Each structure stands twice: as C-alpha cells, then as structure tokens.
Amino acid sequence: MTGIWALAALWFGLAVLASLASSWFRISTALSEIVVGMVASVVFTAMIGPDVLRTDEPWVKVLAGIGAILLTFLAGAELDPRVFRLKWKEAVAVGLASFFLPSIGCAAAGHYLLGWDWMPSILAGIALAATSVAVVYTVMLEFGFNRTDYGKTILAACFITDLGTVIALGLIFSPFTSKTLIFVVAVTAAFVGFPWLTPRLLQRYGGRPSELETKFLLLGLLGMGSLASWAGSEAVLPAYLIGMALAGSVGRDHALIRRLRTVTVGVLTPFYFTRAGYLVSIPAVIAAPAGVLFFLVVETVTKIGSVYPVAKHYGSTHKEAMYTTLLMSSGLTFGTIASLFGLSHGIIDKSQYSTLVAAIVGTAILPTVIANLFFLPRHLLPKEESEDLVSKGAGMQKPAQREERG
Fold first, then answer.
1. Which of 319, 321, 286, 2 is nearest to 154 (CA)?
2. pLDDT for residue 388
3. Which whole-number Å values give the CA distances from 28 to 75, 236, 371, in the listed order?
4. What 8-state DSSP symbol labels residue 31?
5. pTM beyond 0.85
6. Smallest Cα–Cα separation from 128: which of 298, 10, 8, 379?
7. I need a labelling partner for 270 at 20 to 30 A (CA). Which of 22, 278, 317, 395 fits?
8. Residue 193 and residue 202: Cα distance in Å, rounded?
9. pLDDT digits 0-9 by tens, 80-110
C-alpha cells in the first residue's frame, strides 16, 4: 500500500499546484489541471519515465470516471426547469448550431487538409464538435453564472450539442442492438422514475449524518453508468439526463449540492482533468503540429460562424454572443470519449488519436481563456460575484465575503 499512498499523494500534489496556478493566473481550475497534467507528462517523461502517474491504474481510472459522472450530473442539476421552459428555443438553436457546422467543417478539414480517410475524419468532426459540459460547468461555477438564467441557458445548449455527438457516434459507428434498446428503455424509466422517488426518499430519510442522499445518488448514477457502458454508450450521458430530471428537487437543495461539489471538485475531478492532460503526447504533437493547428482553427471558425449569429438572433450583445460562442467551442469530455472510442475500435490510429486529443485539449484551453479575458459579460454576473472580481482585481478581497465563503 505504500506505493499507492505515495501515488495518491503525487496526484493531489499536482491538484494543489493546479489550484494555485488557477488563482495566480485567474483561469478555471479545470483548465489549470489540464495544463499541469500536460507539463507533468513532459517533465516526468524526461526525468523519470512516462508512467510515473500510472494513469491506467484501475483505481485512478475509477476516480477519474466518477468525477466526470458527478460533475456532469451537477451540470444537469443546475438546469432550472423554469429557465429551460422559457428559453428552450434559444438553447436548442445554439446547441444544434454548435454541432452541425463544426462537425462537417472539421470532418472536411481532416479529409482534405490532413489526408485522413473519411471514417477517421468523420469521427474527428464528431469529437471536435462536442462541447465539454465539465469545462463549461466549472467555468459557470467559478464565476457564478450557474445561478443566472444566462448561464443555465448555456448549460442547456451544451446538453443539446453533446446529445447530437452521442447520437451521431452511435448511428455512424455503433450498430443498434438489443442492448441499445434495453439501455434506452432503462434511461427513459430513470428519467421518469427518479423525479418521483428521490424527493420522497430524501424527505423521509435525508438530512442525517449517514448521508443517504449522496449514497442514493451514486447508486443510481453508477448503476446507469454501468448499463450505458454495457450497451456501448458512455456513463456521462445518463448522468446528465438524471441531473436534468432532478433539477427541480435535488437541484434546489443547496446544502446537498454544495456537499456534492466539495467531493467532486475537491477530490475526484483533479484525476479526470489532470489525466486528460497527461495522456497527450507532446512529442507527437511537436513532430506534427499542423494537424492540431488545422483542427483548432477550423473548429473555432466554424463555431463562431454557426453559434455567434444564433446568439445575436436571440438578443445577445456582441460581448455576450462571443462569450457564449467561445464557451460552446470548449471541448474535452465527450470529445476525448469519442476519440478513445475511435482508438479502441480501430477507427483512428495512435498518431491520429494524439493529434485529435491535443486539438481537443487546445479547445478546452484557448477559447475559454480568451472568453474570460476579453468577453466576460460582467453585467450578467450575480452582484456578489461581480464585486468579488473587482476586489480581486484591486489586489484584495473583502473580509466579509471571505468569511461568508469559508
């Protein structure tokens, strides 16, 4: 066990470093964890060896997977049903625009610019069109947009985009089988049954030191995740759907949501984001940077060309529309899932995988950093968050705010 404890300490050491970097450079913690993972990969490979973090250890993959599932669930639970009913047209329009043109454009870039065959190119288009709910939700959470109608509309649009990714991946590369039918029926039953059962169970047995709420939610999320994996889908999809279904009950229990966030962001997601960065082969990217650059440019240009006009159509200002567009350009979760699916099924090779994942990680970093630096719509922030940003910019933080958040 000594080696396991030492390895766990190393992972959390990188997590602490990422949190400090996030504070120093004022970027999302998720993005800093990705960058720290990429830097650690280069440093450890040069000084010790490529397998220092043992990213394929079962317990590391389990913690990373649970972190992605819980973070996706929390993003779904933040979707206010009232806001979705009022702005569902905008959310659907932005989500569909964010998927169709970028997927076609990136597939064409893979085939005509990089010379890839059509099937790897189509998979690349699907992967790059995805929007990372994990990254966007983390940004929403850190700035406080998750409590605004604007932020909740963006999260709903992310769901539409990623739903298109999952459907396209399944229809093109995964044959519809009896397992798929069973999974669809189970997800439908969970989507209907969880909103009925959960509030009744938690009202009677919740609020106790045994933390029945967390255990029950993990039971449902991991159970549906295992069924999704068995059916050839991904565990984060039912997590998002269940989160949406429980937005009207669990999503309004702020104490429970805060406890889940503490466990998710503080313990689990560092494994997911750091691992995602660590798996990128920097030497392979340096040896053939053209593919990464082409995909980054095409993905960003097609996202701007498709999402920005739709956001403007629904009344957003230039800054709001650009912020929405750039956040919808950030990929990671479903993009890396689609890439790994392609690698494991022989659709793309390892070189194409490294190029694709490096481009996806780039989309998780560059658009979000640019959005927060130049297009942050401060007027839409909750009042206390806006004051907090001003005080941080002045090099100080109000003591009352610090006590309230502690």
1. 321
2. 58
3. 16, 21, 11
4. H
5. no
6. 298
7. 395
8. 14
9. 777 778 888 999 999 999 999 999 999 999 9
Please report where in the chains the tokens 């403007």 appear, as a residue: 312
CA dihedral 24, 30, 34, 36 (to 10 degrees): 30
Tell me how far apart the alpha carbons of residues 131 and 4 are, in angstroms, rounded to a whole number: 34
Q: What is the CA radius of gyration of the chain?
A: 20
Please write the tens of the pLDDT for every residue from 62-80.
Answer: 998 898 889 888 877 877 7
Residue 297 pLDDT: 92
Measured CA to CA, the distance from residue 213 to residue 346 in angstroms comes to 41
Report, as ranges of residue numbers, the positions in the chain whose pLDDT lies below 70: 27, 174-175, 383-406
How far from 275 is each of 15, 70, 166, 189, CA to CA, in Å? Answer: 11, 17, 22, 33
Q: From 344, 336, 366, 361, select the one nearest 282 (Cα to Cα).
A: 361
Nearest Cα neighbor of 385 from 144, 136, 74, 35 is 144
Segments in 109-247 forming alpha helices (H): 118-129, 133-143, 149-173, 178-205, 212-230, 236-245
How far apart (Å, rounded) are the C-alpha atoms in residues 300 and 183? 34
Contact assessment for residue 285 and residue 358, using Cβ atoms and an 8 Å cutoff: yes
Q: And the tokens for 303? A: 């996202």
Q: What's the CA gap between 70 and 394, in Å, rounded? A: 35
Quick one: pLDDT at residue 403? 36
H helix intervals, 264-376: 269-278, 282-287, 289-313, 318-328, 333-344, 350-374
The per-residue pLDDT for 387 is 55
Alpha helices by DSSP H, 174-211:
178-205
Cα separation, 82 vs 389, whole angstroms: 28
Residue 406 confidence (pLDDT): 33
Q: Do residues 290 and 361 make contact, with C-beta atoms less than 8 angstroms apart?
A: no
Interacting residues of 22 by C-beta distance below 8 A, sequence separation 6+ = 28, 29, 31, 32
